[in-house]
TrEMBL record:
Gene3D superfamilies: 2,3-Dihydroxybiphenyl 1,2-Dioxygenase, domain 1 (3.10.180.10). InterPro entries: Extradiol_RC_dioxygenase, Glyas_Bleomycin-R_OHBP_Dase, Glyas_Fos-R_dOase_dom, VOC_core. GO terms for molecular function: dioxygenase activity; lyase activity. Transmembrane segments: none annotated. It comes from Silicimonas algicola. Keywords: Dioxygenase, Lyase, Oxidoreductase. The keyword Membrane does not apply. The keyword Lyase applies. This is Catechol 2,3-dioxygenase-like lactoylglutathione lyase family enzyme. Residues 11-137 form the VOC domain.
Amino acid sequence: MTDIRKLQVQGVHHITLTGADRQTSIDFWEGTLGMPFIFEQPNLDSPGENHLYFDPGDGRLITIFTNEDRTPDRRRTPTDPGCVHHLAFAVSEATFAQAETRLKARGIGYTGPKDRGFMDSIYFKDPLGFLIELACYRFTPPEGCRHADVMIRAHRLRVERGDHHIDRVHLADAIEALVEERHASLSADRSARNPY
């Protein structure tokens, strides 16, 4: 019998997309989404292509294979099984509040904002027809927790209560439970009380 073990991942290292020409990629990823253009070299697996690297803000990378013989095609990229449907990027509430105005100023069509219960989203296509989402969480995790910690707890509460989707009440109750579990208190009774 074979000893089967997981290949445990620890996060996204980078995502690579096939782009058109170099300048279109720079204009979109840096000039529209604000990702610093940090590195460039030939595509080591395909000599006719260039490989551009952008920093999406969390220290990981978005990379683009470019070729000066390719031109942008704004038709929607395929969504067949096995294809990437869209990429979602985290933005602050301040940036999200400006997203519609800034997309309109560029003449970029969009869908949203959409209420996702635990976050707000707005969608638009890049110059090659690839769907991009700007996502803004509606909560800040308690100290020492990650967004995923709050999400799994909120999901469990939603399922227990028979609710359709995660909403603000599940997030608030999840955060309260995580604080109670992970942060000590001198009080013997930490239940909700009314001091008035």
